[in-house]
Amino acid sequence: MAPDHDMATRAPPPTASPTPTASPTPAAPPTSGAVRSWFACGAVLGLLSVACAALVAHLPDRLLAADGREALRSAVQILGWHAAALLAAALWLREGVARRLVHLAACCFLTGTACFCAGVAVPALGGPHLGRTAPTGGTLLMIGWALLAASAWPTRSAARR
To answer: What angle do CA 147, 151, 153 make, to 5 degrees?
Structure first.
């Protein structure tokens, strides 16, 4: 029997196409630099809130103004809550909804926390009163919460879909 020379040059038979599967799961949205930055800011504020809480618990009374420990506890509480708020804002940014409002809210949280905590902590530690710094910080924090709430409201274009 003669060898079949055509076998060596033939292409292999076509294989059956793979069975159709359900649509692939969407990939996670890319993490932008802004998301990472706000997340890092929230994590740093969280770290600072724990460190400051320990400091407030152990500072000797002679280093504090009258009622200074209670004022510092208030500042530490604001620091901790707004660390969590920045983390939430960073996660909300990943959803891609009302990005400008979320960025503005995060800016208000960070700036407001710094102003409020400095305005409360400096005099509590015996330093000078910083004028309207603490109330300005508190106002910024309230604006940040309002902006974050507004970012969750559906827009007109989303409502029409």
So the answer is: 120
CA distance 58 to 49: 14
Asked if 105 and 158 count as a contact pair (C-beta separation under 8 A), the reply is: no
DSSP calls for 24-57: PPPPPPPPPHHHHHHHHHHHHHHHHHHHHHHHHH
Whole-model pTM? 0.77
Which of 39, 158, 138, 143 has its CA nearest to residue 92? 39
Low-confidence residues of the chain: pLDDT under 50: 26-27, 161
Q: What type of residue is 88?
A: A
* Alpha carbon distances (Å) from 124 to 66, 75, 130: 8, 10, 11
Place of tokens 């969750």: 152
CA pair distance 152, 148, nearest whole angstrom: 7
- For 64-87, letters b (16+ CB in 10 Å) and e give beeebbebbbbbbebbbebbebbb
Q: What is the pLDDT of residue 9?
A: 57
| C-alpha 35 chain-centroid distance | 7
